[in-house]
Amino acid sequence: MDERERSRNNGVSGGGANGGLVYPVMTEEQIQILRHQIVAYTIISEQLVQMYKSFIAQQDFIGMELGNPSCDPLMALGARKISSRRHRWAPTPVQLQILENLFIQGSGTTRTKEKIKEITNELAQHGPVTESNVYNWFQNRRAKSKKRSAQFQSKTESI
Amino acid sequence: MDERERSRNNGVSGGGANGGLVYPVMTEEQIQILRHQIVAYTIISEQLVQMYKSFIAQQDFIGMELGNPSCDPLMALGARKISSRRHRWAPTPVQLQILENLFIQGSGTTRTKEKIKEITNELAQHGPVTESNVYNWFQNRRAKSKKRSAQFQSKTESI
DNA sequence: TCGATATGAATGAATG
DNA sequence: CATTCATTCATATCGA
Question: How is this protein annotated for GO cellular component (chains A, B) (predicted)?
């Protein structure tokens, strides 16, 4: 999606302050593409939300083994064992939830070092973590998002 | 969202046929809103699909009378089969032979995404397969090869 | 049913 | 950021 977003902006002027004047920034065809994308995601989300509801209706207990009631079941998917010694860092469920939320809020944008430091401090309250861990996580998360978006594209382009 | 879409269209002209001329149809601010919406839906969909997958994985034992046609779009998004057992991809004997041959032949050449795509298309003639499957296979095959040579090393060291 | 092994897949970390 | 590696998890298969 990033790629097409970029190409979409090619025709956009530098965004000068407009005094009530509207500049030509998108063709109608481009708008149609955008609307189709939004509609597609709307439908997909609605269907998945329905699934989710029936899911939690039947399986309230799943994902709660670690006893963190504040954790949305939707977010409690990457839970890992804490017991065994591990050589590489793995986010705790709480940390994962925080990270995922931040990722959504930031819309996948790159973080500055200051932001990384803040996030690291916040996460540190829920388990050991370094700034490198956070940095790597966001980097890998973006890659994951991108890869999955590509898969979406190839499978939903019929919509 | 419907509401905001409508309000967004208020400033759009009636969509007269344009002879190569671009009409002012959206401001940059509006585009930004749209982009954020799309990104948000992308990420939400990803998370919901993940939830859905884990749901299916744990639901293995329950009769899935929910397997109605309306779920088909979900399956198209990468989720596995609903009614039958969960399955992970496994190469057919023919596919495996092709992959092994390619692995021996191409020992050293870097496999670009183009190569992966070609190989996927070839394998697809002998059974369902995705590019990710092929990519993972080569990755795991390399690891396997490396581990074996390491074992060989340790055995010859004692001589 | 219970390990034991093989292997597809996910992901933290490293490299270019 | 794109690729790749190293490690780990999950599942399929098999034999006792």
Answer: nucleus
- Look at residue B142 and tell me whether its pLDDT is greater than 80: yes
Q: How far is the CA of B111 from the C1' of D2 (A)?
A: 13
For residue range A95-149, what is the model confidence (pLDDT) as tens digits?
A: 988 898 788 777 667 778 889 999 999 999 999 999 999 999 999 998 888 887 7
For A23-69, the DSSP string reads -----HHHHHHHHHHHHHHHHHHHHHHHHHHHHHHH-TTTT-TT--T
Q: Residue A129: which H helix or E strand, with range?
A: none
Per residue in A67-108, pLDDT tens? 333 334 433 333 334 444 457 899 988 898 889 878 877 766
Cβ-Cβ contacts under 8 Å between A and B: the total is 135
Give the pLDDT of residue B145: 87
Question: Which bases of chain C come closer than 7 Å to a protein CB?
Answer: 7-14
Task: Tell me the CA–C1' distance in angstroms for B10 and C10.
Answer: 46
Residues A23, A15 contacting (CB under 8 angstroms): no
Non-local CB neighbours of A128 within 8 Å, separated by 6+ positions: A89
CA proximity to B46, closest of A7, A1, A45, A84? A45
Token reading at A22: 């509207």
Residue A117 CB neighbour total at 10 angstroms:
13
The count of other CB atoms within 10 Å of the CB of residue B148 is: 10
Kindly determine whether the C-beta of residue B81 is less than 7 Å away from any atom of nucleic acid strand D: no
Name the residue among A28, A51, A103 with its Cβ closest to that of B52.
Answer: A51
Q: Which stretch of B36-45, B61-70, B134-143 has the lowest confidence by average pLDDT?
A: B61-70
